Amino acid sequence: MTLLLKPRGVRVLSAHLHRVAAASKATWLGLLATTTLLSLASLTQAVQAQTRQATDPQAAISQYPTRTIKMLVGFPPGGPNDQLARLLGLRLSERLKQPIVIENKPGSSGEIAATQAAAANPDGYTLLFGSSGALTISPSLNSKLSYDPLKDLTPISMVALNPMLLVVSPKSGITSVPDLIARAKAQPGKLTFASAGTGSPTHLSGELFRDMAGIDLLHVPYKGGGPAMNDVMSGEVDMYFAGLSTALPLVNAGRLHAHAITTNKRSDTVPTLPSISEFGFPDYSSIIWYGVLAPAGLPQPIVAMLREHILVIMKMPEFRKQLSDSGAEIFDQGPAEFKAFMKEDLDKWAKVIAATKVTK
Questions:
Q1: pTM of the entire structure?
Q2: Which domains does the chain have, with CATH numbers?
Q3: Is the pLDDT confidence value at 349 over 90?
């Protein structure tokens, strides 16, 4: 069937269709305008929130953290520094409910990572998992160091320490610390001690012992702890101050003999092993310590928050066991204690380095 419309009917229908189209267009434009306004409002709110954080430090502090945090580590993946940083970072991320990315910046005994941390924005989104080498030994060895650990970094929490063992070659015939001292005094300069490199903690531990005991030992530096350990086991070198975690399995296997630990008290890991301080050197202590720091100027509320979370983590039995399994021990110090300890450690190693004329 075909519908025929007269001219007037056509005009009426056309007008009606135009009204419908105009109404639909108005509705669509209204919806578009509404959604656009809502989107603009959301965008405006987001921009305003970021602006408030940028212009109002209190807003940023109260909302911290709102994004990923990076933790700098001055050594390659797989080493003690990296392993401990990852153990801590995983649990800290869970508590802060934000990702923590471990960024390895190896080189110069941790100085590269410390330099980057010191230069970063003190907003809590750049942390340093630092250790004694770059923070209390390097300042006395590197006159061109671009950072001052006490001025350019904010200590947040000490976390762990790694003692060293005074080990000797089974072929050396050395039976104890007193026997070692007696032999060294009888034949000055004949006994040798290895190190992982000049200026390393393994080297300075030996220099401190030599100075306090008043003996003459011949230093034999190596490029790393592995070659040093091998030559002590073979009898090429008499003794070595080795990290507990790497030395203990070799001691248990009879390939090395351990006579003392370098902490100022006995360790729960090897409770039968005396400390060097027990042999008439009460001030002897040489450890590798690890702690969390941030750029100088980190707001105190963020320092307190991070310290509180780290303290909770350090009390976790599983975390403590993991540290123990790796040869490390909990070393609990808050920001003020941590800074005071760093100052003491800096002064101690500065004196040792100056007295022994150690240079890199």
A1: 0.77
A2: 67-161+287-356 (3.40.190.150), 163-279 (3.40.190.10)
A3: yes
